[in-house]
Amino acid sequence: MSRHSAQFKRRVVKDYLSGRVGGSAEVARRHDIDHGTVRKWVAAWRLHGEAAFRKKFSHYDSRFKLKVLRLMVSKDLSCRQVAAVFDIRNPGVIGIWKRQYDSGGIQALEPRPRGRPVKQPKSSVPPDSTESDETRTKEELLAELNYLRMENAYLKKLDALIRSESPKAPRRKRR
């Protein structure tokens, strides 16, 4: 969530653009904010007008990120300047995109799956047993036998582990 309302940002920009007060440092001191923030808001206002202060929730695809990085390199712009041109609210993310691109190319800019990763890979599925045993080859039957033996051994070890943990100190009965 934004720290300052859109109305407050408009008031600061109008105050700066009126020219009555001297420079961004003076406007920042009057409104008790950082002078870099004033410059950023003024640049956004000049490029995008009223749309600069609307709420924006965006996810950028790899082509857009690459377009931003190419403009930054070709025009020799800073992250803050490129963010103002493309209306990206967090200029710091452009530096992250640049490091990702430098280390891994366009594939590094692709969005990653969100959420918690799967802890344990899914177990392998036993060979298809819908065919009758007479029609299957000897290798297929041996592969299924090996799979079933491994599964059986795993379940026996799991059962032994559960049994070894369950005997605890006997509880005393209350009187």
UniProtKB/TrEMBL annotation:
Residues 108-137 are annotated as: Disordered. Pfam families: HTH_28, HTH_Tnp_1. It comes from the Bacteria. InterPro entries: Homeodomain-like_sf, InsJ-like_HTH, IS150/IS1296_orfA-like, Transposase_8, Trp_repressor/repl_initiator, WH-like_DNA-bd_sf. Residues 64-116 form the Insertion element IS150 protein InsJ-like helix-turn-helix domain. Gene3D superfamilies: Winged helix-like DNA-binding domain superfamily/Winged helix DNA-binding domain. Belongs to the IS150/IS1296 orfA family. This is IS3 family transposase ISBam1. It comes from Paraburkholderia metrosideri. The lineage of its organism: Bacteria, Pseudomonadati, Pseudomonadota, Betaproteobacteria, Burkholderiales.
